[in-house]
Write a sequence for this structure.
């Protein structure tokens, strides 16, 4: 069986090589390439099934199975052990891309064009890379890159980056859109920094770690080592697969974009074709991040739901860029804006997904997640450089063709708001990138400043190389920068729905502006006089309240007030509403959390923020897997007992090195979470030490996330949802007719605008004036009554 | 809209943001100190009281003592050791012989850690001593 698995993967490698090159050589071969992609997907499905089967049947002939599973493990965790390690997770990820590629092929099966040739070629090349890592890479580990070679490559990259910057400046001068060229410069700058960093730290020589999950152990063990008890959590079943779905999904829009660039298709059709893929990947990646946060929240010692750990950041970065992409893709579909920017964004989203895996697998940055250092990093590094370099060169060579037809004309327009969103999200990504890679950046800065003979700041001067980590930014770095940034972002999100495309009547902005101004006017003195401690958090709540209300109103308006329901709009605002709720939870729990360490004897009580904790006593439960030493704590408010919480220290038997897992006890309601974790049991449990947490509003983080997911589902299903169900009934209501007196619905998009306006504020179409009935139906010439609602004109 | 204006605004914004990120990172970052370096710096008086420190080392075998919610242990490196006290949640990955990162303000010995991160170079893999010794 294992040999078959390996064989399948090698055949898949050969087939994917064919699929990369065949369509480029001759368009006639495209059909064969399609079949090759099907073949690759089938073979990879078969091999991952074999791996899963080996896991389920505890086939300890396989090194990978022996390392991550054992007989006592439940079947669900046996299955999840498939992606628990380096080798299996690569196969899992590659397999998902292969399946997605097969779906893309199926959708395009009848189309034979140059565009599709490139599409398939790019997709196959990504799959090829993953298969290469799994199968061929272990054989050439020893080939590392010499330091001279690294210098040389570094030099070439610098030269390339320099040329690219000059190129975009020149093209900016040549009357193409300067703003977008500027975006290009920013991204190229980022890219060159990335590459330099990667090359400085890229090559790590460690012993080969197997990447082929079908590698044989040589002997058969009686039992495996088992899955780390920390991973035996429902989070292990949900978090990695969703994240991988997101990562893998972003490959498809990237491939479409590259195909469009290769063939100089300049009508933005790549965005239309990959719209669902984009939303799907964005949504899954987001859900994956939240599931990880949920897991970390319940797993102690991972620093709460978000700890700005490098690997958490690695999944956040593609999500941030992906979020920018989702928005500017909308702007391109609707208004033909941000053409160039979008290809940069899609490239960076894809590269950042791969970069995430580089961070986890190379040992470059230390993290609680890391798989351990491995030479795999070198290959991933080379791939990143090749893919990023290749994509950027391709983009530059097409800049002329992509000259935008439209420009942003006014600051008070939706277009500008989209630009602002893009800029803010890009800055957010840069912040996270800088913080995550600070150990590398700091060294680079130190060298650079020394070279330029500029006196070093104290923080840089004290850097000494300690393993791979020398210096790291604290959580305060992210808090100090991301706090204000998200506040501005939310202000944009709150104001944006009130701002029209092209140009807005400034009077309409009076409400949001005075609201925002009011926040500042009220909060600043309150803070100065010591009434509130956290002006930023308070301002955050105020802006989020506005943003949530505006989003909620937009949903209401789109569903109940329009003759046609624009589900794209509804979905988007459901997501915004969810974001508002999520961040209310995030701000509240991160700023107003209280925690205390206490030691209690059985029967003793402890009070915190109006709650009384009573330690009832110990309890022990033992089964095949572990011994659970429990502490029972009852939670009281006044004289009422709210709940009995069980928190335990579970010691797992079969595992490596007496691994203990702390299970917390949680009491929650819509207002707050009360969280108790036992940290030590003494005297047979008669004395127990606890850490108690009071975490306000944290549940809204999860509720908001669920709402975001719902919004995402609405976006995905927008084309299948009924367009006019609710409007039919409301149209006849007299109230609605009255409301329509002052407002007319646009003949094009169905949204309401003021009678005096010349343009529809939603779609920018010229006002229908007398040609459109107040119900939104087009007037028949010379008719006296509306054909749709029967109203007299 | 004048693109020049947008370009200038962009450049100004980029410079401002770069400066802000650069400075914040300098302010909030802390260099890691190995146990031996920590010793040298403590003896030479280079470490001021209250200065934020990230101490990195291995938990000495047999040194872990728990009392209530407090934990005491030694971190070792190159035959040097520093005593550490910490109160609160000990991460599940913490164990004797594992590498830990300790955050805290310097106040002599024992080092009072406010944050304890347990690191395992191959955390989700089997502990394998060959793995470490074969590293160059």
């Amino acid at each position: 069986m294992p040999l078959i698995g390996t064989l399948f993967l090698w055949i898949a490698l050969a087939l994917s090589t064919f699929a990369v090159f065949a369509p480029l050589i001759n368009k006639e071969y495209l059909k064969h390439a399609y079949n090759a992609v099907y073949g690759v997907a089938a073979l990879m499905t078969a091999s991952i099934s074999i791996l899963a089967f080996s896991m389920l049947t505890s086939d300890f002939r396989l090194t990978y199975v022996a390392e991550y599973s054992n007989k006592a493990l439940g079947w669900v965790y046996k299955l999840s052990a498939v992606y628990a390690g380096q080798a299996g997770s690569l196969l899992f990820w590659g397999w998902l891309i292969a399946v997605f590629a097969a779906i893309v092929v199926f959708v395009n099966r009848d189309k034979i064009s140059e565009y599709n040739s490139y599409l398939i070629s790019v997709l196959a090349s990504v799959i090829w890379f993953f298969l290469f890592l799994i199968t061929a890479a272990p054989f050439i580990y020893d080939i590392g890159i010499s330091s001279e070679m690294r210098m040389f490559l570094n030099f070439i990259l610098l030269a390339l980056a320099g040329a690219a910057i000059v190129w975009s400046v020149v093209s900016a001068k040549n009357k193409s859109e300067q703003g977008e060229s500027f975006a290009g410069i920013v991204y190229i700058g980022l890219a060159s920094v990335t590459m330099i960093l990667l090359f400085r730290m890229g090559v790590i020589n460690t012993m080969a770690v197997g990447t082929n999950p079908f590698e044989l152990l040589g002997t058969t063990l009686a039992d495996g080592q088992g899955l780390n008890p920390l991973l035996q959590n429902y989070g292990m079943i949900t978090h990695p697969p969703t994240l991988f779905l997101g990562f893998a999904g972003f490959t498809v829009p990237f491939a479409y974009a590259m195909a469009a660039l290769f063939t100089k298709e300049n009508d933005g059709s790549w965005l239309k074709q990959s719209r669902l893929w984009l939303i799907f990947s964005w949504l899954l990646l987001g859900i994956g991040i939240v599931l990880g946060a949920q897991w970390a929240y319940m797993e102690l010692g991972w620093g709460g739901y978000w700890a700005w750990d490098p690997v958490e950041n690695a999944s956040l970065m593609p999500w941030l860029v992906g979020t920018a992409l989702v928005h500017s893709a909308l702007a391109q579909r609707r208004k033909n804006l941000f053409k160039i920017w979008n290809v940069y964004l899609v490239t960076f989203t894809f590269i950042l997904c791969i970069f995430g895996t580089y961070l986890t697998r190379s040992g470059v940055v230390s993290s609680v997640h890391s798989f351990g250092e491995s030479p795999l990093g070198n290959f991933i590094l080379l791939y990143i450089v090749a893919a990023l370099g290749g994509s950027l060169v391709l983009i530059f060579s097409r800049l002329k063709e992509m000259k935008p037809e439209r420009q942003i004309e006014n600051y008070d327009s939706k277009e500008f708001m989209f630009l602002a969103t893009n800029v803010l999200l890009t800055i957010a990504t840069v912040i996270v990138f800088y913080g995550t890679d600070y150990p590398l950046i700091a060294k680079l800065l130190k060298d650079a400043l020394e070279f330029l003979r500029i006196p070093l700041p104290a923080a840089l001067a004290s850097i000494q190389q300690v393993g791979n980590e020398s210096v790291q930014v604290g959580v305060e770095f992210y808090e100090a920068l991301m706090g204000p940034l998200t506040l501005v972002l939310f202000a944009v999100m709150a104001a944006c729905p009130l701002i029209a495309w092209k140009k807005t009547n400034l009077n309409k902005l009076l409400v949001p502006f005075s609201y925002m101004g009011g926040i500042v006017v009220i909060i600043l003195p309150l803070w100065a006089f010591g009434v509130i401690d956290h002006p930023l958090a308070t301002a955050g709540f105020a802006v989020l309240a506005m943003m949530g209300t505006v989003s909620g109103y937009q949903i209401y308006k789109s569903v109940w007030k329009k003759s046609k329901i624009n589900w794209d709009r509804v979905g988007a605002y459901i997501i915004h509403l969810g974001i508002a709720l999520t961040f209310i939870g995030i701000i509240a729990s991160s700023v107003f959390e209280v925690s205390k360490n206490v030691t209690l004897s059985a029967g003793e009580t402890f009070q915190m923020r109006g709650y009384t904790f009573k330690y009832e006593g110990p309890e022990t439960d033992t089964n095949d897997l572990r011994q659970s030493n429990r502490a029972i704590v009852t939670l009281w408010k006044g004289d009422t007992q709210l709940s009995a919480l069980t928190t335990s220290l579970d010691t797992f038997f079969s595992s490596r090195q007496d691994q203990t897992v702390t299970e917390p006890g949680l009491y929650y309601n819509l207002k707050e979470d009360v969280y108790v974790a036992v940290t030590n049991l003494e005297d047979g449990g008669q004395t127990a030490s606890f850490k108690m947490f009071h975490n306000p509003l944290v549940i809204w983080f999860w509720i908001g996330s669920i709402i975001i997911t719902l919004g995402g589902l609405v976006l995905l299903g927008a084309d299948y949802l009924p367009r006019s169900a609710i409007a039919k009934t409301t149209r006849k209501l007299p109230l609605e007719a009255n409301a329509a007196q002052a407002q007319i619905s646009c003949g094009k998009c169905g949204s309401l605008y003021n009678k005096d306006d010349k343009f529809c504020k939603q779609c920018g179409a010229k006002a229908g004036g007398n040609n459109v009935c107040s119900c939104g139906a087009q007037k028949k010439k010379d008719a006296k009554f509306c054909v749709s609602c029967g109203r007299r004109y | 809209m004048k693109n020049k204006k947008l370009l200038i605004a962009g450049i100004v914004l980029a410079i401002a943001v770069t400066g802000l990120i650069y400075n914040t990172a300098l302010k909030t970052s802390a260099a890691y100190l190995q146990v031996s370096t920590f010793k040298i710096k403590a003896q030479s008086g280079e470490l001021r009281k209250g200065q934020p420190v990230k101490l990195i080392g291995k938990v000495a075998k047999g040194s872990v003592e728990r009392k209530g919610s407090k934990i005491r242990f030694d971190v070792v490196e190159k035959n040097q050791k520093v005593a550490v006290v910490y109160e609160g949640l000990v991460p599940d990955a913490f164990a004797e012989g594992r590498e830990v990162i300790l955050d805290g303000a310097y106040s002599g010995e024992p080092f009072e850690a406010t944050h304890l991160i347990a690191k395992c170079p191959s955390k989700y893999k089997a502990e394998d001593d060959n793995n470490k010794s074969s590293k160059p």
Observations:
- Residues 50 and 443 of chain A are 45 Å apart (CA to CA).
